Amino acid sequence: MTSVGSADEQARAAGIVSRGIAAVIDLVVVGVVLGALYLGLVLTRLMFNPTAFSLPTLSVVFSTAVMFGVAVLYLTGCWTVSGCTAGAVTMGLRVTAVRADRLSPVVALLRAVAYVLFPVGLLWVAVDARRRSLQDIVFSSRVVYVKP
User: Total structural domains in the chain?
Assistant: First the structure.
């Protein structure tokens, strides 16, 4: 029987549970940022027109576009700078390129767009022998446990 990848690579590859929990934590972070943006919009409207103030109503298309933008910027920035999002830090994970320590900004952006548009790709980790998501396969990245 042959093994896929080196023993070090297999031992360090993050699994579906830790990656899934990290993704949920990152979703909460994006939600908090969206809440802060909405609060800023409310306070700005109140500041400029206090006598006729009403809570702003946002369309589904606008809200979805802003959520997409915030999520992509958050993931891209974190993966480019350190390889770790808040969820990854909590779970002891880091996103790296297969042949480098960090993702390039372009690869991080494309990977972030793919994760936001197709989050189900994460489930491939459960069936892949090397614990790669579909996004990892397409963009030559991997998620590993950070050494203590």
Answer: 1
